[in-house]
Amino acid sequence: MDIINVEFVRELVEACTYFWEAGWGECHAGNISYLLDEKEVEEVKDFLKVHATVPVDFDTEGLEGKCFMLTRSGSAFRTMKKRYMHDMGIIRFIKGAYEILWGFDDGEGRPTSELPAHILCHRARLQDDPKNKIVMHCHPTYLNAMTMIHELDEEEFTKTLWKMNSECVLVFPEGLAMLPWMVCGEGPIGPATAEKMKNKRVVIWPFHGIFSSGNSLFDAIGLIETIDKNAHVYVLTKANMLHSMTDENVEELRKHFHL
Question: Are 259 and 170 within 8 A, CB to CB?
Answer without folding.
Answer: yes
